[in-house]
Design a protein that fits this description.
Keywords: Signal. The chain contains 9 helices and no strands. By secondary structure, the protein is mainly α. The chain starts with a helix and ends in a 6-residue tail after the last helix.
Length: 229
C-alpha cells in the first residue's frame, strides 16, 4: 500500500511540477513580450523624453517580472533578463537619442534572447529536476494533492467561461467595423498585459488574464491592420 501511495504522489507531483513550471513560463513569456514591445516603442520615438518614457515602462515591467521569470526555472532567460535590466537602466540615463538607441537595441536583443531561451526551455533543463521532485514527494500530503486538484478545477471553469468570451469576440469581429473591432480587442489585450504585471495577482486571475490575452491575440492576428483592399 505504501508503494502505491508513493507512486501516486510521484505521478501527481511530477505532473504538477512540470505543469506549474510550464504555466510560470507562459506568464514570463507574456511579461517579456510586453517589455520587448515597450522597448521597440522607445526605439521608434524621435524625442529623447518620449524614448525615456517607454524605456522606463519596459524597465519597470521587467523589474516586476523577475519573480515570474525565476519561477519559470530557465537560468538562461534569468541571466538575459539581468543583462537587459542593466541596458535599460543605462538607456534611461543616456543624454542623446543616438546613445539611447544603441543601448535599447542591446536591450531588445536580450528580450528576444530571453523569449527564445524560454521557448527552448525543455531542451536545456529545468530547476524542477529529480532532486526537487524527491523533496516534493517526501514532504507531500493529502492537503497539497487536493489543493492541486482544486486548482485544476478552477482552471477548467475559467476555460469554460472563456469559450463564451471567444464567441462574443468572434461576433464583434464579424459584425463591427474592422478598425473599431481592432481597437476593442487591443484594449482588452493591453489590459491583460497590465494585469499580468501585477506582482500579487492570484493564480486564478493570472491564468484568466493569460488565456484571455492568448484568445485576443489570435483575434488581433485575424483582424490584421484593417487595410482596405
Amino acid at each position: 500500500m505504501k508503494l502505491f501511495y508513493f507512486i501516486l504522489f510521484l505521478f501527481i507531483f511530477t505532473f504538477s511540477s512540470s505543469y506549474g513550471a510550464s504555466q510560470d513560463c507562459d506568464y514570463a513569456t507574456s511579461n517579456i513580450g510586453y517589455v520587448k514591445n515597450q522597448t521597440k516603442k522607445a526605439l521608434s520615438m524621435k524625442d529623447l523624453q518620449m524614448t525615456r518614457f517607454y524605456t522606463y515602462k519596459a524597465l519597470t515591467a521587467l523589474e516586476k517580472s523577475k519573480k515570474n521569470i525565476a519561477d519559470c526555472g530557465c537560468e538562461e532567460a534569468s541571466d538575459s533578463v539581468l543583462e537587459n535590466i542593466e541596458y535599460l537602466k543605462n538607456a534611461t540615463k543616456a543624454t542623446s537619442l543616438a546613445g539611447a538607441r544603441i543601448l535599447l537595441n542591446k536591450a531588445l536583443l536580450f528580450s528576444i534572447e530571453s523569449l527564445e531561451a524560454i521557448a527552448n526551455h525543455d531542451e536545456h533543463g529545468s530547476i524542477y529536476g529529480s532532486d526537487n521532485l524527491i523533496m516534493n514527494v517526501a514532504s507531500s500530503n493529502k492537503e497539497e494533492t487536493m489543493a492541486f486538484l482544486d486548482q485544476n478545477k478552477i482552471r477548467q471553469r475559467i476555460d469554460t467561461s472563456l469559450l463564451k468570451y471567444k464567441t462574443s469576440l468572434d461576433n464583434v469581429i464579424n459584425t463591427v467595423d474592422c478598425a473599431e473591432a481592432r481597437a476593442f480587442a487591443q484594449n482588452i489585450y493591453e489590459n491583460c498585459e497590465q494585469e499580468l504585471l501585477k506582482p500579487h495577482l492570484s493564480e486564478s486571475k493570472k491564468y484568466y488574464n493569460l488565456k484571455t490575452k492568448e484568445i485576443t491575440e489570435k483575434a488581433l492576428d485575424r483582424l490584421g491592420n484593417c487595410e482596405r483592399k
